[in-house]
Design a protein that fits this description.
CATH architecture of the largest domain: Sandwich
CATH topology of the largest domain: Jelly Rolls
Number of helices: 13
Number of domains: 2
Shape: globular
Structural class: alpha+beta
Distance between the termini: 41 Å
CATH class of the largest domain: Mainly Beta
Order of helices and strands: HEHEEEEHEEEEEEHEHHHHHHHHH
Largest sheet: 7 strands, antiparallel
Strand order of the largest sheet: 1-3-4-11-6-9-12
Radius of gyration: 23 Å
Length: 325
């Protein structure tokens, strides 16, 4: 029994680092040391004599490492000599949240603005700079896993992709899932699986999406657009770049349908609004419309079937501060 327990993967591990309270003379060294343990080894320099200020939230899964990084102006580098001394066997993905950045590599240079991400093999030389400071998400993936996800294609040059508004659903949802995983104290193992499947499409250049990846991207799209009463499976499939048949298959693999899933989202959001003091001035019909129902009667019937209570009963119970059984 003990050997079986030892074979279980380690649970996700969350931890934090900040330079606050550290003597300025020691900050860069300790910042480098933290990143070496938590993400990848980096040669870090400040641009001027101002004391470095930096903070990082980290999450380590059995395969993936995630981080939310903030800091003042700095330059980070992995030169050929540095890589020889500190090999990492990782592919790194940097998602810019604030501040412009440059990325120099053997083939030239790239600029990175908020809402853009860059993916690169961390054992190839690069230099990154942040003149106005940085705020970003970071994902590191073992090279062996990247090759599996990419269909065996090695990453010889940096790949830039968008993840902000208007970007493809896989990039948007990947960044959203990373943020969500970093925001909870005890993330579950399936959070890593969702990130891997979403990353598969990006790693393969969009040529090897899995049903699990399409499902994760579709869920994210539906969560953002479920309030649109005209939302259709055709729209969702088109946003993902797949057929409606593929979309249905992705949901069927999880025992779901797109229609039932979006109905559940709308009812859950409706319940939240009915119980929220901030929405107390909205009528039940207005709430139904806000969460995507064209008919108040249909909202009421579906709500009663789902929660065994009417919308009005939910609202009255919330106002009285009692829970419905």
């Amino acid at each position: 029994m003990a050997s079986q327990q030892n074979d279980l993967p380690a649970p996700p591990r969350a931890f934090r680092f900040t330079t606050q309270g550290i003597a300025p003379v020691n900050r860069v060294q300790l910042w480098e040391g933290h990143n070496a343990k938590a993400l990848i080894s980096l040669d870090i320099r400040t641009i001027d004599e101002s004391p470095l200020q930096a903070a990082e939230v980290n999450l380590q899964f059995p395969s993936l490492r995630l981080a939310h990084v903030q800091g003042t102006a700095q330059i980070v580098e992995r030169s050929e000599s540095f890589i020889r001394q500190n090999p990492t066997d990782m592919v790194a993905v940097f998602f810019a949240l604030a501040g412009d950045a440059f990325f120099y590599h053997r083939g030239g240079h790239e600029s990175l603005k908020p809402g853009q991400a860059i993916m690169y093999d961390a054992d190839l030389p690069f230099m990154r700079g942040f003149a106005q400071g940085l705020q970003e998400l970071v994902l590191t993936v073992p090279r062996s896993l990247f090759l599996e996800l990419s269909g065996g294609t090695a990453l010889k040059r940096p790949v830039r992709f968008d993840f902000g508004p208007g970007a493809g659903p896989h990039g948007q949802e990947l960044a959203r899932r990373i943020r969500a995983a970093l925001a909870v104290e005890q993330p579950t193992d399936d959070a890593e699986d969702a990130v891997i499947e979403l990353f598969r499409s990006i790693a393969s250049g969009g040529n090897a999406g899995s049903d699990a990846g399409y499902l994760a991207a579709a869920r994210g799209y539906l969560e953002r657009h479920h309030g649109d009463p005209e939302l259709s499976t055709a729209e969702v499939a088109a946003a993902l770049g797949i057929s409606e048949r593929q979309l249905g298959r992705a949901f069927a693999a999880a025992g779901l349908t797109p229609g039932r899933y979006v109905l559940g989202l709308r009812l859950d959001r409706g319940q939240d609004l009915l119980a929220s003091p901030a929405a107390d001035g909205l009528s039940i019909g207005e709430i139904a419309a806000r969460v995507g129902f064209l008919s108040q009667n249909y909202f009421a019937r579906a709500y009663k079937e789902r929660f065994n209570a009417t919308p009005l009963q939910t609202r009255k119970a919330a106002r009285a501060g009692v829970a419905l059984e």
